[in-house]
Write a structure and sequence with these properties.
Structural class: alpha/beta
Strand content: 5-15%
CATH superfamily: Phosphatidylinositol (PI) phosphodiesterase
Distance between the termini: 43 Å
Shape: globular
Helix content: 25-40%
CATH class: Alpha Beta
Radius of gyration: 19 Å
Oligomer: single chain
Order of helices and strands: HHHHHHEHEEHHHEHEHEEEHEHEHEH
Bound molecules: SN-glycerol-3-phosphate, calcium ion
Largest sheet: 8 strands, parallel, barrel
Amino acid sequence: MKKASLMSTIFIAGILTACGDNNAAEENMNDNGGADNETNVETENNDDNNNNENLDENDEEQNNDNEDDMNDENMNNEANHDNNNDGTNDSSEDDAEDTSAEGTDNEAKIIAHRGASGHAPEATSFAIDQAIDMGADWIELDIQKTADDELVAFHDDEIDRTTDGEGEIGDHTLEELKELDAGSWFNEENPDDADEAYEGAEILSLEEIFEEYGEDVNYYIETKSTYLNEDMEEPMVNMVEEFGYEDNVIIQSFHQDSLQEISELNSDIPLVQLLWWEVDEETGEMEEWLDVTPAPDDMTEEDFDAIADYADGIGPHLEYYDGTEVIDEDFVQTMRDHDFMVHIYTINEEDDMHRLMDWGVTGLFTDYPDRMQDVLDERS
Ligand code: G3P
Ligand code: CA
Protein backbone atom coordinates (compact mmCIF):
# COMPACT_ATOMS: atom_id res chain seq x y z
CA MET A 1 0.00 0.00 0.00
CA LYS A 2 2.08 2.45 0.29
CA LYS A 3 -0.34 5.02 -0.91
CA ALA A 4 -0.67 7.63 1.71
CA SER A 5 2.82 8.53 2.46
CA LEU A 6 2.40 12.13 1.35
CA MET A 7 -0.32 12.98 3.79
CA SER A 8 0.51 10.40 6.36
CA THR A 9 2.01 12.67 8.95
CA ILE A 10 -0.93 15.03 9.04
CA PHE A 11 -3.46 12.24 9.06
CA ILE A 12 -1.59 10.26 11.66
CA ALA A 13 -1.51 13.32 13.87
CA GLY A 14 -5.25 13.51 13.51
CA ILE A 15 -5.87 9.91 14.25
CA LEU A 16 -3.57 9.98 17.21
CA THR A 17 -5.63 12.83 18.57
CA ALA A 18 -8.93 11.12 18.00
CA CYS A 19 -7.51 8.00 19.55
CA GLY A 20 -6.70 9.64 22.81
CA ASP A 21 -3.20 10.66 22.11
CA ASN A 22 -2.87 14.39 22.10
CA ASN A 23 0.81 14.41 22.76
CA ALA A 24 1.47 12.12 19.87
CA ALA A 25 -0.64 14.31 17.67
CA GLU A 26 1.36 17.30 18.69
CA GLU A 27 4.58 15.45 18.04
CA ASN A 28 3.50 14.52 14.57
CA MET A 29 2.29 18.01 13.96
CA ASN A 30 5.63 19.41 14.94
CA ASP A 31 7.43 16.89 12.86
CA ASN A 32 5.33 17.96 9.98
CA GLY A 33 6.89 21.34 10.07
CA GLY A 34 4.77 23.21 12.49
CA ALA A 35 1.35 24.37 13.29
CA ASP A 36 -1.69 23.02 11.67
CA ASN A 37 -4.52 25.18 12.92
CA GLU A 38 -7.04 22.45 12.42
CA THR A 39 -5.05 20.00 14.42
CA ASN A 40 -4.50 22.50 17.21
CA VAL A 41 -8.20 23.07 17.56
CA GLU A 42 -8.84 19.41 17.36
CA THR A 43 -6.34 18.55 20.02
CA GLU A 44 -7.94 20.97 22.42
CA ASN A 45 -11.36 19.61 21.69
CA ASN A 46 -10.25 16.13 22.52
CA ASP A 47 -8.87 17.02 25.89
CA ASP A 48 -12.02 15.98 27.67
CA ASN A 49 -11.93 12.55 26.19
CA ASN A 50 -8.27 11.96 26.35
CA ASN A 51 -6.55 13.81 29.07
CA ASN A 52 -5.15 11.57 31.70
CA GLU A 53 -5.89 14.24 34.25
CA ASN A 54 -9.46 13.10 33.94
CA LEU A 55 -8.68 9.69 35.31
CA ASP A 56 -11.12 8.34 37.77
CA GLU A 57 -9.84 7.62 41.24
CA ASN A 58 -10.93 4.10 40.73
CA ASP A 59 -8.00 2.48 39.07
CA GLU A 60 -6.74 0.14 41.75
CA GLU A 61 -10.10 -0.46 43.36
CA GLN A 62 -11.82 -1.26 40.16
CA ASN A 63 -9.44 -3.94 39.09
CA ASN A 64 -11.95 -6.68 39.11
CA ASP A 65 -9.61 -9.62 39.07
CA ASN A 66 -11.30 -10.79 35.95
CA GLU A 67 -8.38 -12.75 34.62
CA ASP A 68 -10.54 -15.82 34.53
CA ASP A 69 -12.85 -14.00 32.19
CA MET A 70 -10.05 -13.81 29.68
CA ASN A 71 -10.37 -17.55 29.37
CA ASP A 72 -14.03 -17.45 28.66
CA GLU A 73 -14.69 -19.06 25.34
CA ASN A 74 -17.33 -16.47 24.65
CA MET A 75 -14.56 -13.96 24.42
CA ASN A 76 -13.56 -15.35 21.09
CA ASN A 77 -16.92 -16.11 19.65
CA GLU A 78 -17.37 -12.72 18.16
CA ALA A 79 -14.22 -13.02 16.18
CA ASN A 80 -14.63 -16.54 14.91
CA HIS A 81 -16.10 -15.72 11.55
CA ASP A 82 -15.40 -17.70 8.49
CA ASN A 83 -13.72 -15.23 6.29
CA ASN A 84 -13.95 -16.60 2.80
CA ASN A 85 -12.05 -15.20 -0.07
CA ASP A 86 -14.81 -15.73 -2.54
CA GLY A 87 -16.68 -12.60 -1.73
CA THR A 88 -18.74 -14.07 1.03
CA ASN A 89 -18.40 -13.65 4.73
CA ASP A 90 -20.16 -16.63 6.19
CA SER A 91 -20.73 -16.96 9.87
CA SER A 92 -21.27 -20.00 12.01
CA GLU A 93 -24.46 -20.20 14.01
CA ASP A 94 -22.65 -19.03 17.09
CA ASP A 95 -21.13 -16.16 15.20
CA ALA A 96 -24.45 -15.13 13.75
CA GLU A 97 -25.80 -15.00 17.25
CA ASP A 98 -22.87 -12.92 18.41
CA THR A 99 -23.19 -10.39 15.65
CA SER A 100 -26.95 -10.20 15.51
CA ALA A 101 -28.43 -6.75 15.62
CA GLU A 102 -30.46 -7.85 18.62
CA GLY A 103 -27.37 -8.60 20.67
CA THR A 104 -27.33 -7.81 24.34
CA ASP A 105 -25.24 -5.13 25.98
CA ASN A 106 -22.94 -7.74 27.40
CA GLU A 107 -21.83 -8.63 23.95
CA ALA A 108 -19.88 -5.41 23.62
CA LYS A 109 -16.27 -6.43 23.98
CA ILE A 110 -13.74 -4.45 25.96
CA ILE A 111 -10.80 -3.73 23.68
CA ALA A 112 -8.00 -2.29 25.79
CA HIS A 113 -6.42 0.35 23.59
CA ARG A 114 -2.63 -0.15 23.79
CA GLY A 115 -3.46 -2.03 26.99
CA ALA A 116 -4.95 -0.01 29.82
CA SER A 117 -3.12 2.99 28.43
CA GLY A 118 -5.07 5.48 30.53
CA HIS A 119 -3.52 3.93 33.60
CA ALA A 120 -0.03 2.84 32.58
CA PRO A 121 2.50 3.46 29.82
CA GLU A 122 0.94 2.28 26.59
CA ALA A 123 1.88 -1.06 25.05
CA THR A 124 4.14 -2.00 27.95
CA SER A 125 3.70 -4.97 30.25
CA PHE A 126 2.22 -2.59 32.82
CA ALA A 127 -0.59 -1.53 30.51
CA ILE A 128 -1.20 -5.10 29.38
CA ASP A 129 -1.22 -6.48 32.92
CA GLN A 130 -3.68 -3.86 34.09
CA ALA A 131 -5.94 -4.41 31.09
CA ILE A 132 -6.09 -8.11 31.89
CA ASP A 133 -6.80 -7.36 35.54
CA MET A 134 -9.59 -5.01 34.49
CA GLY A 135 -11.32 -7.71 32.50
CA ALA A 136 -10.45 -6.63 28.98
CA ASP A 137 -11.57 -9.07 26.31
CA TRP A 138 -8.89 -7.96 23.88
CA ILE A 139 -5.49 -6.33 24.21
CA GLU A 140 -5.08 -3.85 21.37
CA LEU A 141 -1.55 -3.29 20.14
CA ASP A 142 -0.08 -1.44 17.18
CA ILE A 143 2.67 -3.39 15.52
CA GLN A 144 5.66 -1.95 13.68
CA LYS A 145 8.93 -3.25 12.29
CA THR A 146 12.38 -2.60 13.67
CA ALA A 147 15.52 -2.02 11.63
CA ASP A 148 16.31 -5.72 12.03
CA ASP A 149 12.83 -6.75 10.91
CA GLU A 150 11.43 -7.68 14.30
CA LEU A 151 7.77 -6.96 15.06
CA VAL A 152 7.28 -4.71 18.06
CA ALA A 153 4.27 -3.22 19.84
CA PHE A 154 4.59 0.50 19.33
CA HIS A 155 2.14 3.11 18.13
CA ASP A 156 4.01 6.16 16.92
CA ASP A 157 6.25 6.09 13.90
CA GLU A 158 8.80 7.94 15.99
CA ILE A 159 10.04 6.96 19.40
CA ASP A 160 10.36 10.48 20.79
CA ARG A 161 7.03 10.85 22.59
CA THR A 162 7.02 7.70 24.68
CA THR A 163 10.69 6.88 25.13
CA ASP A 164 13.95 8.62 25.94
CA GLY A 165 15.15 7.93 22.40
CA GLU A 166 14.83 9.83 19.17
CA GLY A 167 13.99 9.10 15.57
CA GLU A 168 11.91 6.60 13.68
CA ILE A 169 11.27 3.26 15.26
CA GLY A 170 12.17 1.54 12.03
CA ASP A 171 15.70 2.95 12.24
CA HIS A 172 16.42 1.10 15.48
CA THR A 173 17.13 -2.55 16.11
CA LEU A 174 15.15 -4.46 18.69
CA GLU A 175 18.20 -4.55 20.92
CA GLU A 176 18.51 -0.78 20.75
CA LEU A 177 14.82 -0.31 21.44
CA LYS A 178 14.98 -2.62 24.44
CA GLU A 179 17.48 -0.29 26.07
CA LEU A 180 15.06 2.64 25.98
CA ASP A 181 12.86 3.81 28.82
CA ALA A 182 9.29 3.58 27.56
CA GLY A 183 7.68 4.33 30.90
CA SER A 184 9.00 7.51 32.49
CA TRP A 185 7.17 9.74 30.03
CA PHE A 186 3.90 8.45 31.48
CA ASN A 187 4.89 9.50 34.99
CA GLU A 188 5.82 12.94 33.76
CA GLU A 189 2.56 13.33 31.86
CA ASN A 190 0.40 11.79 34.58
CA PRO A 191 1.80 12.72 37.97
CA ASP A 192 -1.36 11.58 39.75
CA ASP A 193 -0.94 8.11 38.33
CA ALA A 194 2.83 7.96 38.34
CA ASP A 195 4.43 4.78 39.55
CA GLU A 196 8.17 4.31 39.99
CA ALA A 197 7.80 0.83 38.61
CA TYR A 198 7.02 2.32 35.22
CA GLU A 199 10.49 3.82 34.96
CA GLY A 200 12.50 1.88 32.42
CA ALA A 201 9.50 0.00 31.05
CA GLU A 202 10.52 -1.88 27.95
CA ILE A 203 9.25 -1.88 24.42
CA LEU A 204 7.99 -5.39 23.76
CA SER A 205 8.29 -7.54 20.70
CA LEU A 206 5.16 -9.30 19.50
CA GLU A 207 6.87 -12.64 20.01
CA GLU A 208 7.70 -11.72 23.58
CA ILE A 209 4.09 -10.72 24.22
CA PHE A 210 2.74 -13.94 22.76
CA GLU A 211 5.20 -15.95 24.84
CA GLU A 212 4.61 -14.03 28.06
CA TYR A 213 0.83 -13.80 28.00
CA GLY A 214 0.09 -17.02 26.18
CA GLU A 215 -3.07 -18.42 24.78
CA ASP A 216 -5.36 -17.22 27.54
CA VAL A 217 -5.16 -13.67 26.27
CA ASN A 218 -6.67 -12.25 23.10
CA TYR A 219 -4.56 -9.99 20.94
CA TYR A 220 -6.05 -7.31 18.67
CA ILE A 221 -3.01 -6.37 16.64
CA GLU A 222 -2.68 -3.72 13.97
CA THR A 223 -0.51 -3.56 10.90
CA LYS A 224 0.57 0.02 11.48
CA SER A 225 1.90 2.56 8.99
CA THR A 226 2.47 0.02 6.27
CA TYR A 227 3.98 2.70 4.06
CA LEU A 228 6.91 2.52 6.50
CA ASN A 229 6.59 -1.06 7.69
CA GLU A 230 6.69 -2.87 4.38
CA ASP A 231 6.07 -6.58 4.20
CA MET A 232 5.06 -7.03 7.81
CA GLU A 233 2.01 -9.12 6.96
CA GLU A 234 3.66 -12.44 6.25
CA PRO A 235 5.88 -12.49 9.34
CA MET A 236 2.90 -11.46 11.44
CA VAL A 237 0.73 -14.23 10.06
CA ASN A 238 3.58 -16.71 10.41
CA MET A 239 3.96 -15.80 14.05
CA VAL A 240 0.23 -16.15 14.73
CA GLU A 241 0.32 -19.56 13.05
CA GLU A 242 3.46 -20.70 14.87
CA PHE A 243 1.86 -19.90 18.19
CA GLY A 244 -1.44 -21.41 17.04
CA TYR A 245 -3.21 -18.21 17.96
CA GLU A 246 -5.63 -17.97 15.06
CA ASP A 247 -8.47 -18.02 17.60
CA ASN A 248 -6.75 -15.56 19.90
CA VAL A 249 -6.01 -12.86 17.38
CA ILE A 250 -7.82 -10.19 15.41
CA ILE A 251 -5.73 -8.26 12.92
CA GLN A 252 -6.84 -4.70 12.21
CA SER A 253 -5.56 -2.07 9.84
CA PHE A 254 -6.41 1.20 8.15
CA HIS A 255 -4.60 -0.22 5.14
CA GLN A 256 -6.96 -2.21 2.98
CA ASP A 257 -4.31 -3.98 0.94
CA SER A 258 -2.56 -5.08 4.12
CA LEU A 259 -5.74 -6.82 5.27
CA GLN A 260 -6.36 -8.25 1.83
CA GLU A 261 -2.90 -9.74 1.83
CA ILE A 262 -3.42 -11.25 5.28
CA SER A 263 -6.75 -12.65 4.18
CA GLU A 264 -4.99 -14.43 1.35
CA LEU A 265 -2.25 -15.70 3.63
CA ASN A 266 -4.65 -17.09 6.22
CA SER A 267 -8.39 -16.77 5.87
CA ASP A 268 -8.99 -18.02 9.43
CA ILE A 269 -7.65 -14.94 11.16
CA PRO A 270 -10.46 -12.43 11.79
CA LEU A 271 -9.76 -9.04 10.23
CA VAL A 272 -11.10 -5.59 11.01
CA GLN A 273 -11.02 -2.68 8.58
CA LEU A 274 -10.30 0.52 10.47
CA LEU A 275 -11.76 3.71 9.03
CA TRP A 276 -11.04 7.37 9.54
CA TRP A 277 -13.16 10.03 7.88
CA GLU A 278 -11.89 13.54 7.45
CA VAL A 279 -14.61 16.16 7.69
CA ASP A 280 -14.44 19.28 5.55
CA GLU A 281 -15.08 22.02 8.06
CA GLU A 282 -16.82 24.26 5.54
CA THR A 283 -18.95 21.80 3.63
CA GLY A 284 -19.26 19.04 6.20
CA GLU A 285 -18.35 16.53 3.51
CA MET A 286 -16.52 13.45 4.67
CA GLU A 287 -13.65 11.73 2.99
CA GLU A 288 -12.07 8.54 4.22
CA TRP A 289 -8.33 8.93 4.81
CA LEU A 290 -7.21 6.10 2.54
CA ASP A 291 -10.18 6.02 0.16
CA VAL A 292 -11.38 2.73 1.56
CA THR A 293 -14.98 3.93 1.59
CA PRO A 294 -17.10 6.95 0.73
CA ALA A 295 -18.86 8.85 3.53
CA PRO A 296 -20.89 6.59 5.83
CA ASP A 297 -24.22 7.75 4.41
CA ASP A 298 -22.99 7.13 0.86
CA MET A 299 -21.82 3.59 1.40
CA THR A 300 -23.54 1.13 -0.90
CA GLU A 301 -24.06 -2.61 -0.80
CA GLU A 302 -21.04 -2.88 -3.04
CA ASP A 303 -18.91 -0.94 -0.58
CA PHE A 304 -19.92 -3.23 2.28
CA ASP A 305 -19.44 -6.29 0.10
CA ALA A 306 -15.98 -5.13 -0.87
CA ILE A 307 -14.98 -4.98 2.80
CA ALA A 308 -16.75 -8.25 3.59
CA ASP A 309 -14.61 -9.87 0.93
CA TYR A 310 -11.66 -9.86 3.32
CA ALA A 311 -12.78 -8.49 6.69
CA ASP A 312 -15.10 -9.59 9.46
CA GLY A 313 -15.40 -6.27 11.20
CA ILE A 314 -15.31 -2.52 10.74
CA GLY A 315 -13.60 -0.19 13.18
CA PRO A 316 -14.67 3.41 12.67
CA HIS A 317 -14.06 6.40 14.87
CA LEU A 318 -16.96 8.25 16.46
CA GLU A 319 -15.91 11.86 16.29
CA TYR A 320 -13.89 14.13 14.10
CA TYR A 321 -11.56 16.51 15.89
CA ASP A 322 -14.10 19.31 16.07
CA GLY A 323 -16.63 17.06 17.75
CA THR A 324 -18.56 16.28 14.59
CA GLU A 325 -19.85 12.75 14.90
CA VAL A 326 -19.04 10.86 11.74
CA ILE A 327 -21.24 7.85 12.45
CA ASP A 328 -24.69 7.43 13.93
CA GLU A 329 -27.00 4.69 15.14
CA ASP A 330 -28.29 3.97 11.65
CA PHE A 331 -24.79 3.40 10.38
CA VAL A 332 -23.98 1.11 13.28
CA GLN A 333 -27.14 -0.86 12.54
CA THR A 334 -26.27 -1.00 8.85
CA MET A 335 -22.86 -2.44 9.68
CA ARG A 336 -24.51 -4.94 12.00
CA ASP A 337 -27.04 -5.83 9.33
CA HIS A 338 -24.09 -6.72 7.12
CA ASP A 339 -22.86 -9.09 9.86
CA PHE A 340 -19.79 -7.07 10.70
CA MET A 341 -18.31 -6.82 14.12
CA VAL A 342 -18.55 -3.10 14.92
CA HIS A 343 -15.72 -1.81 17.08
CA ILE A 344 -15.54 1.94 17.67
CA TYR A 345 -12.36 3.77 18.71
CA THR A 346 -11.35 5.33 21.09
CA ILE A 347 -14.12 5.70 23.63
CA ASN A 348 -13.17 6.82 27.11
CA GLU A 349 -16.28 8.52 28.46
CA GLU A 350 -18.95 6.41 30.13
CA ASP A 351 -21.79 8.37 28.52
CA ASP A 352 -20.40 7.57 25.08
CA MET A 353 -19.98 3.94 26.04
CA HIS A 354 -23.63 3.72 27.08
CA ARG A 355 -24.79 5.50 23.93
CA LEU A 356 -22.74 3.35 21.59
CA MET A 357 -23.90 0.19 23.30
CA ASP A 358 -27.46 1.43 22.87
CA TRP A 359 -26.69 1.74 19.19
CA GLY A 360 -25.62 -1.90 19.06
CA VAL A 361 -21.84 -1.83 18.73
CA THR A 362 -20.13 -5.14 19.40
CA GLY A 363 -17.00 -3.69 20.97
CA LEU A 364 -15.23 -0.51 21.99
CA PHE A 365 -11.59 0.43 22.01
CA THR A 366 -10.88 2.22 25.27
CA ASP A 367 -7.91 3.41 27.28
CA TYR A 368 -9.95 2.64 30.41
CA PRO A 369 -11.13 -0.97 30.40
CA ASP A 370 -12.25 -0.52 34.01
CA ARG A 371 -14.70 2.21 33.03
CA MET A 372 -16.17 0.05 30.34
CA GLN A 373 -16.46 -2.85 32.74
CA ASP A 374 -18.38 -0.55 35.09
CA VAL A 375 -20.70 0.43 32.27
CA LEU A 376 -21.28 -3.19 31.34
CA ASP A 377 -21.97 -4.00 34.98
CA GLU A 378 -24.47 -1.15 35.20
CA ARG A 379 -26.30 -2.46 32.18
CA SER A 380 -26.36 -6.09 33.14
O1 G3P B 1 -6.92 0.48 16.40
C1 G3P B 1 -7.95 1.34 16.69
C2 G3P B 1 -7.33 2.61 17.01
O2 G3P B 1 -6.28 2.29 17.85
C3 G3P B 1 -6.81 3.26 15.77
O3 G3P B 1 -6.10 4.36 16.06
O4 G3P B 1 -3.99 5.57 16.00
O5 G3P B 1 -4.72 4.55 18.14
O6 G3P B 1 -3.94 3.13 16.29
P1 G3P B 1 -4.62 4.39 16.66
CA1 CA C 1 -4.37 1.01 17.02
